[in-house]
Structures are given as C-alpha cells and as structure tokens.
Design a protein that fits this description.
The protein is mostly helical. Helices cover 72% and strands 3% of the residues.
C-alpha cells in the first residue's frame, strides 16, 4: 500500500506542478458557471421535456453529478492520458518493467493518480455548483449532503471507471496515438447509450458510469411533483438550444442499499481492470520494423521537387506515418471520389478528416521528440520559414483526401475546405510549439471531429463550410496567420 501511495503521489505532483493545470482549473470554473443557466438563457443543460428543477441543493447536487459525470468522463480521458502516453513515448515503461516493484503495484499507483486527479476536478465542479446556487438565488439554503451523496456514490466510481478504461486503451500500442482518442469516443458513447436503452426511465446494474441512477431519479421527481406531465424518457443532458420553460420542486434521490452497493461494485471492477492490464501495459517496446518497405514514403517524397526544408519536413512526417498509413490515405482518397452522397457524409467524410491527424500530431513536436530544438535554434534559418514549412508540410499530408472531398462540392468546396485544412494544421503546429506535446492538438481535433464530422453539430461540421465559402476562407486566412505568428514567436 505504501508503494502505491508513493507512486500515486509522485505521479500526481508531476501532473499538477505545471502551468497547464491552471488553465484546466479556469476552464472547469467556467464550465461550472455555464452548467447553471439563468431563466433568460437561450439554452439548457438538463432538460426534462421542457422542465427543470428549482435551483436548490437537491436539484443542483443531482444535476451537477449528471453533468460532471458526462463531461468529465469524456474529457477526463484526454486530461489523464498525457502521463500515460508520455511513459510510452519516452520509454519509461522499459525502466518500470526492469524495476523490482510488481507491475500490478505500479499500475495501481498510476491508476490511483488518475482517479485522484479526476476526483479533484469533479470536487471543483461541486464547489462551483454550490456557488452558483447562491448566485442564482432561487433557493439559497445549502444542504451539503445533497451534494456529497451523488458525488461519493456516482461521480467517484465513474472517475474510477474512466481512469481504468483510459489506462487500458493507452496500454495497447496501436492506440497510444490518435487512434486511442477515436476509440474512446465510441466507448464513451456506448457507456451512455447502452444503459439508457436497457433502463429506460428506470435503473440498471449494467451502468458503469451510473447514468441511470441519476436520470431515473429526475424522471420520478418530475412525475411526483407534476403528475399531469407526460414526457416519456425525453431528457437532454448537455448544452441544448431548447431552454427549460417550466420549473418544479425536485425532492432529491431516494438512496437505498442496492444502489450504493452497485456503485461500490463498479469501483471494484475499476480496480480489477487496472490490475489486470498491468501484465501487458508495462512492457518493453520494440523498435519499428519494416526495412526498405518502411522507408517507401520518404523515398517517394525525395523524388518530388520541393524546397529542401519543406522536403525534409514532409519526408520526416510520412516516414513516421509509414507505408500502411500511406496506402490507407490512397484508399480514403479514392473512396471520397466515388462513394455515393449518403455514404460520403456518414462514413467517408469523417475518415477524410481524421485519417491525417496522427502524422500531423507527430510532426508538430518532432523537434521535441528528437531533442534537437537547441540545434535548430542555432541554424540561420528564420523562425517564420520553419513555422511556414512545418504548417505547409502538415497541410500537404492532409491535402490529398481533403481535395478529393472538396471536388465533390465543386468550386465552393475547394475555396472552403482546403483553407480549412490549412488553418487546422496551422493551429496544430502552434499548439505543438506552445505545449511541446501532441496531446492538446489531438484532444481539440478529436472533440471537434466527433461533434462536427461525426454528429454534424452545425457550428463544427466541415460540410457547412461549403455553404459560406468566402466567409470560411476569410476566417481561415486570419486563423492561419495568427497561428503562424504564434509558432514563429515560440520558435524564436
């Protein structure tokens, strides 16, 4: 136990002694404010068919647990993943595997650190909810138990499950990059959708995150307060453009031993997952094999007449991506040209936008990974040329499938989508230069991709850019210019 605590403490201190943690705290406080819209707001966060509870401790404690669990389980993966990926990238696993500590102890120490970080973030959102109850002023009497019970019974086990699954996904070598984030989006969706399908308006034990416990209590509370209201299982969790028009008095969650026991059992499952993956999570990594075949992309780039700096950037990026990625890009490009419109929007377009992200994320920090930043600073090449070359190389990696997709929309697609791809890659290079890690870029892009290209949220869907090509072009030019300036300044 002492070893687990020592590993967890060291890992947690390493994560929290950074400037980035202040940015996360500020973002969480802003999120806590947005979770509690006032009566005149044009949106809602927990909407029961147009109804919400009065902002008292019972409603705020329950809904803060619902919203915290929803958002923290999704984004928590990307908050705790950097430490896991850092171990894999920098070869720390090799050192750990050679240490006298049992692997299960090390895995549980890492898992405990992940859980502690997520629980601390969740506790911050609870404090924000208490403050917002006082600010909104609909009922200023504070019942701490109404906040602490949902937090302890539902939120903490959900954090434990999220930490375990994040470790399990990151432990798989093929999912330590952008693929792990893509997989997590679909795992997270299943963790919410399947229990809701099973439970309906009730509860089910097959609910790792505890969604059904909270939503069922909300439905039953509305039915008890307003018996004439018939909403079925119509509940919206998250930021909805439909405001809540009516309010009711929510009496709280009727806790019982069975519900608490189920949540405790899921905490045990989380520990079991963290222990089980230790046998393959902490393994020595072998260098990439492939011989001459693996060098094919770089050899092809050498034949293209490009400026030397740009050729070196593109060659390094494609060399890291490998020939299988290149073959997949060719397949995605052909699919973007020949797939019918229905399949294009549902399947091919999301693939086009996500396929180049892995190599681009690598390219944004290739200097950091190669530990050659100081050498490059000593060269006479101006910083703006390096920033432009890197952004252009990242754009060229993405340009072929995006151009095929743009051709399907004619001139409007070319004017809108290609500048959009350059703006996105420029932002990625800027984030890599600032954070010296590919993970912020991966997290931002994956969230935008999942909401926009996959779920077609209007403000983030690239397909909507073709409806306003000139406005999109102007916005992309401005974004690219700012990102390039930030990158050049950081390099200099």
């Amino acid at each position: 136990m002492n070893a687990i605590v020592a590993i967890a403490r060291a890992d947690l201190l390493e994560r929290t002694r950074t400037f980035g943690i202040l940015i996360v705290v500020a973002a969480l406080l802003e999120l806590g404010y947005l979770f509690v819209p006032d009566r005149s707001a044009a949106y809602s966060t927990v909407n029961l068919g147009g109804w919400r509870g009065i902002y008292d401790s019972s409603w705020m404690g329950t809904t803060s647990a619902v919203l915290t669990m929803t958002f923290l389980s999704l984004f928590g993966f990307f908050l705790i993943r950097p430490a896991q990926s850092r171990d894999a990238i920098y070869g720390t696993y090799d050192i750990v595997a050679a240490s006298p500590l049992p692997r299960a102890i090390v895995a549980l120490g890492k898992w405990s650190s992940n859980v502690a970080l997520l629980v601390a973030f969740a506790a911050l959102l609870v404090v924000a909810a208490i403050a917002m109850q006082l600010v909104r002023g609909e009922d200023r009497s504070i019942d701490l138990l109404a906040y602490l019970l949902p937090f302890a019974v539902v939120t903490v086990p959900a954090c434990a499950i999220t930490a375990s699954l994040a470790m399990a996904i990151t432990a798989i070598p093929g999912l330590r990059g952008i693929g792990g984030g893509v997989v997590w989006f679909f795992v997270w969706t299943a963790l919410f959708a399947i229990p809701q399908q099973i439970a309906g308006n009730g509860t089910t034990a097959l609910d790792p995150l505890g969604t059904s416990v909270l939503t069922a209590s909300l439905f039953h509370g509305l039915a008890a307060a307003e018996p004439h209201v018939k909403i079925g299982n119509d509940v919206e969790i998250g930021f909805s453009t439909m405001p809540s028009k009516h309010v009711f008095r929510f009496v709280g969650i009727p806790w019982n031993g069975a519900a608490i026991g189920v949540r405790a059992a899921w905490s045990v499952v989380a520990i079991a997952i963290a222990t089980a993956i230790s046998s393959f999570a902490l393994v020595r990594t072998s260098p990439r094999a492939g011989g001459r075949f693996a060098e094919l992309p770089a050899r092809l780039v050498a034949l293209v007449p490009l400026p030397p700096l740009l050729r070196a950037e593109v060659g390094a990026t494609l060399g890291e991506a490998g020939p299988y990625w290149l073959a997949g890009m060719i397949g995605v490009t052909i699919a973007a040209l020949v797939t019918p419109a229905d399949g294009l929007a549902r399947i091919v377009a999301p693939l086009v936008w996500i396929w180049p992200i892995g190599p681009i994320a690598f390219a944004t920090v290739m200097d950091v990974r190669a530990t050659c930043e100081d050498v490059l600073r000593a060269t006479p090449t101006p910083s703006w040329r390096r920033a432009l070359a890197r952004s252009t190389s990242c754009f060229l990696v993405a340009a072929v499938p995006v151009a095929a997709l743009a051709l399907r929309d004619g001139g409007a697609g070319i004017v809108a989508l290609l500048p959009l791809a350059f703006a996105a890659t420029s932002v990625g290079v800027a984030l890599g230069a600032l954070a010296r890690s590919p993970l912020p870029f991966e997290g931002v892009v994956l969230v935008g991709w999942y909401l926009g290209a996959v779920n077609h949220f209007p403000a983030l869907d690239p397909a909507n850019a073709t409806r306003h090509p000139l406005a999109t072009l102007a916005a992309c030019v401005a974004t690219s210019a700012v990102a390039l300036a930030i990158t050049a300044r950081r390099i200099a």
